[in-house]
């Protein structure tokens, strides 16, 4: 479909009248709604007039309030806040911070006693479809490993780690 001068003029006229892109496409014939929108964009046509009247008629005004909102609040002196940024951490500090974060992992809450399984300490190359792929430790350290316990029903995690990974939404909200 070629955009001839006559079709472009008709497009401009219909756009100014407030017709939608699909209505213009139907009147021009042989052109899609998206082609009309693209041509309008390339022509940098101004926003078209709304069909059915002016904006003020379509949108009722809000009732005026008794007092402006800004006047109801007392003015406070605004003081700039200083934000403390941590200095560069040493590697030992990062390791201890990671260990502290690991200790704060959520423990699944259930009625029965939860037994934390002993990790088989598998490497990535030792994992299979039936082993738990829960990562343990920092991937940058030599002692990083995966849980490796048996995982039921083609799940990526063992029963214990499933409870950690897949918590019901109500339980997640309660933990916040």
Question: If you had to describe this structure to a student in words, what would you say it looks like?
Answer:
The protein is mainly α. Among the domains are: 5-52; 116-176, no CATH class. The protein contains 8 helices and 2 strands. The protein has helices at 5-17, 21-28, 33-42, 55-58, 69-72, 91-103, 159-165, 169-175; strands at 135-136, 145-146. The protein has a two-stranded antiparallel ribbon with strand order 1-2. Helix 2 packs across helix 3 (33-42). The longest helix has 13 residues, at 5-17. It is elongated and about 80 Å long. The mean pLDDT is 74.
Total helix count? 8
What value does the Rg take, in angstroms? Answer: 32 Å
Alpha carbon gap, first and last residue? 58 Å
**Poorly predicted ranges:** none
| Count of distinct strands | 2
Q: Round the mean pLDDT to the nearest integer and report it.
A: 74
H-E order: HHHHHHEEHH
Bulk shape:
elongated
Largest sheet: 2 strands, antiparallel
Structural class: mainly alpha
Beta-strand share of residues = under 5%
As laid out across the biggest beta sheet, the strand order is 1-2
Instruction: Classify the oligomer.
Output: single chain
Helix amount: 25-40%
Which characteristics define this entry?
single chain, 176 residues, mainly alpha, two-stranded antiparallel ribbon, 8 helices, 2 strands, 2% strand, elongated
């Amino acid at each position: 479909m070629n955009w001839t001068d006559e079709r472009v003029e008709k497009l401009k006229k219909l756009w100014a009248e407030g017709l939608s892109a699909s209505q213009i496409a139907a009147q021009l014939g042989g052109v899609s709604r998206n082609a009309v929108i693209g041509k309008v964009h390339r022509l940098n046509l101004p926003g078209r007039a709304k069909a059915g009247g002016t904006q003020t008629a379509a949108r009722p005004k809000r009732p005026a309030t008794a007092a402006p909102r800004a006047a109801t609040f007392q003015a406070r002196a605004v003081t700039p806040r200083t934000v403390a940024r941590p200095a560069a951490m040493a590697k030992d500090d990062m390791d201890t911070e990671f260990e502290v974060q690991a200790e704060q992992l959520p423990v699944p809450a259930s009625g029965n006693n939860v037994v934390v399984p002993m990790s088989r300490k598998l490497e990535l190359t030792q994992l299979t479809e039936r082993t738990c792929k829960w990562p343990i430790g920092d991937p940058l350290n030599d002692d990083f490993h995966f849980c490796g316990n048996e995982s039921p029903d083609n799940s990526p995690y063992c029963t214990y780690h499933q409870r950690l990974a897949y918590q019901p939404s109500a339980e997640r909200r309660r933990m916040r």
